[in-house]
Structures are given as C-alpha cells and as structure tokens.
C-alpha cells in the first residue's frame, strides 16, 4: 500500500510502505516541529484510517523533534491502541532518542520495537 501525500512542507517527507505481513511503515525524513507536525499527523491519520494491525514510524531520518512532534506521536500511539493496533517508533537518532528518554516516552513508543 502506498498512500500519496498531501502537499508536504519542504523540509519533511513521509514515505509509506506496507510489507507482506501487513505492517505499515512510515519512513520520516526531516525535522518534526510546529511547522511540520500537522503534516505528519495527517499522514498518520491516513494510515490509521485503513486500520492496519501494526504501524512503524521509522525515525532514522529525523534529526530534530520538538514538543509538537512528541504530541503527534502520542496522539497516533493512543489512536492505534484504541484500534487494537500497535504503533512503535523505530531507529530514533541520538537527539530524538535522548528526548524520548528524558520525557519518559521511550518505553511507551520505542520499547516494543526493541523486542521485535
């Protein structure tokens, strides 16, 4: 499954793919901040509207994440949980990883990815 994005901010890209098992991966590239988090939320909503069993947000290409980005990830995690789906954040870069640990969100958002 590949969902065509709405107009993306110039500094954020989200590529959506689905593997043979039905896991949907959003590969995010660029900074997630107040100017781009709404776009990311929209992409996550599009994916979650299809009710996949599992969603992975690949953050390997994200060098910066602010509180609006954290809020977007928490929203998506909560929505996925309500739909009885899993959502995990994978491969956060060091600064993003540190932010997730400092805020106490690493265990909620990333720990399931470590177990896979």
UniProtKB/TrEMBL annotation:
Gene Ontology terms, MF aspect: anti-sigma factor antagonist activity
InterPro entries reported in the protein's UniProt record: Anti-sigma_ant, STAS_dom, STAS_dom_sf
Signal peptide extent: none
Coiled coil: none
Organism of origin: Phytohabitans houttuyneae
NCBIfam families per record: ant_ant_sig
Residue stretches making up the STAS domain: 22-116
Name of the protein this chain belongs to: Anti-sigma factor antagonist
Similarity section: Belongs to the anti-sigma-factor antagonist family.
């Amino acid at each position: 499954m590949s969902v065509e994005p709405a107009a993306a901010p110039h500094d954020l890209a989200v590529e959506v793919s689905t593997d043979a098992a039905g896991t949907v991966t959003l590969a995010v590239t660029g900074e997630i901040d107040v100017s781009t988090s709404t776009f990311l939320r929209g992409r996550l909503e599009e994916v979650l509207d299809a009710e996949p069993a599992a969603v992975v947000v690949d953050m390997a290409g994200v060098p910066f994440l602010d509180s609006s980005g954290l809020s977007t990830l928490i929203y998506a995690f909560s929505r996925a949980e309500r739909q009885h789906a899993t959502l995990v954040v994978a491969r956060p870069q060091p600064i993003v990883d540190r932010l997730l640990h400092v805020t106490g969100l690493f265990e909620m958002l990333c720990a399931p990815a470590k177990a896979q």
